[in-house]
Amino acid sequence: MSAVRSWYAPLAIRLRTTNPYVVDSALAALVLFAASLQWMFPDEGDDPLSRVGWLLGAATAVPLVWRRRFPYACALAVSAATTAMAYYHAPPPDVLYGGLVVLYTMAAQGLPWQRRSMLASWLLGAVVTMQHKEHSEPFEYAFHLTGMICAYGLGVLARVQRAYTAAVEDRARRLERERAAETARAIAQERSRIARDMHDILAHAVSLMVVQAEAGPVVVRSDPDRAEAAFDAIAASGRDAMTQLRRILGVLKEEERRGGAARLPQPDLAGLPDLVRQVAASTALRVELSVRGRSRPLPPDTEVAAYRAVQEALTNTVKHAYASCAQVELDWAEDELTLTVTDDGRGPARTAGGHGLIGLRERAAACGGSAEAGPGPRGGFRVVVRLPATAEREAALG
Predict the structure, then answer these.
(1) What is the pLDDT of residues 240-264, one digit of tens each?
(2) Where is the Histidine kinase/HSP90-like ATPase domain (predicted)?
(3) How many other C-beta atoms are found inside a 10 Å radius of the C-beta of residue 362?
(4) Which residue, 122, 222, 359, 372, is the most exposed by fewest CB within 10 angstroms?
(5) For residues 382 and 341, is the Cβ–Cβ distance under 8 A?
(6) Domains of the chain by range and CATH?
(7) Going by C-beta distance under 8 Å and a sequence separation of 6 or more, which residues neighbour residue 377?
(8) Is-contact 324 284, C-beta < 8 A?
(9) Model pTM greater than 0.70?
(10) Residues 1-39: tens digit of each pLDDT
């Protein structure tokens, strides 16, 4: 069976890709040859032969050249020629070669009413002809009628197979489009994540560097040690920013992914104490960190979101608040982590605009949480971020 299929498959593909007129012309020539066998071997039968009979037989074959472009018109022409040949009876249609091809074509390509009417008319015409002109034996009824039904059945199978193939190809195209759209969405999300990370890193580092650069010249003569510490803080902030940028941009390098090059992990909640110390050491801002409840590991993207939220809030405090103190609070509930960053500086002017706060809200929403920012209850500014604190809930949201 596999050998037959391996032989038939290339032939079927070649026939489908060949010019239809070439294939149908060859088919018409084959039908004409079969109908002309009675003239090639006249001694084999006792039916009368005539030139008009041969022309009528040729008329059952020639229209097949246009069977795919004009299937119903071709079927009517062949049907009329076959009826005339049966009535003329010199010779009578021995085997309905053209009729078999027409029934197959109509079953494969015709409209429902065309298919049904053509099958019924050919079956009825064959029965009437055999009964009144041929006086056929019972086995001849079975032979002709079974041949017609088989030809029609093969056409139905071809139509169903073509419809199935078209449906499969359409589904494959839809899946390909959906895959391309999903890939585009994933790329856009990854680019958005990278853009937020780069914003957070650069905004934080540059803010610290600006604060120290402004303080350095003021104390360079009166307090050289403090000026030196300021410049050291600028250098440390720059080096840290470069390290984090290299880590983030590493995801864009295909060579590193293929080669399995190791990259430093993304920041998480364990890095918050270092972040607080860095901000306090690099600026005049006093930063306090407090934790309530039982801490526990979170999904990686949630940990990154929590770290970046605190980083963005402290960056805003350094850049805009003119504050002297900031408080970072982590409140662990049963299924939620609440991060609150408050300061005692100038607050309300920072509630609108700014890509940092927008990115902070997007990060929280991507993890299934929320973020809000506004004036604090005792003045200053407050940022509150709520994130799901269970892996199960995070998986459900994903």
Answers:
(1) 666 666 665 665 554 445 444 444 4
(2) 301-391
(3) 16
(4) 222
(5) yes
(6) 2-136 (no CATH), 275-398 (3.30.565.10)
(7) none
(8) yes
(9) no
(10) 455 455 555 655 665 666 778 888 888 889 888 888 877
